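INFO batch 0412 | record 1 of 1 | parsing
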Amino acid sequence: MSSFKSCFVVRLQRALTRLGTLALLVAAGVIAAKYVVSERLDEGIRSRVEAELRRNYPALDVRVKSARRAQGKGIEIRGLVITQPASRGGQVLLQISEILAECDTGFSGFCGATIRNSGVFKSVE
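INFO prediction complete | emitting tokens
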């Protein structure tokens, strides 16, 4: 009878160890997936903001260092630089360190064709 108990305890310990390892792997996978999705979303926002600004100012060079969705606030844009083209001297015309464009950041409003802006706050260097 004691050998049965010890065999059962060993099997239970192995099963719990496997279950714990599986839980850790699933948690690590979820954290990694969240990070990757967040990075891709931020890059998509940055490229969309930069493309909109380039469309509005076709004769100038526009660069946006980063942009991200600020939950419940809007879009946070960092490192906006607008310069003349290199052929015209490449002079910096505008440099803004941070802009907060207030808009709906919910999935339905955020994925639409146009984003309705309700206010812009900026910090100029």
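INFO post-check: Residues 84 and 90 are 5 Å apart (CA to CA).
INFO record closed
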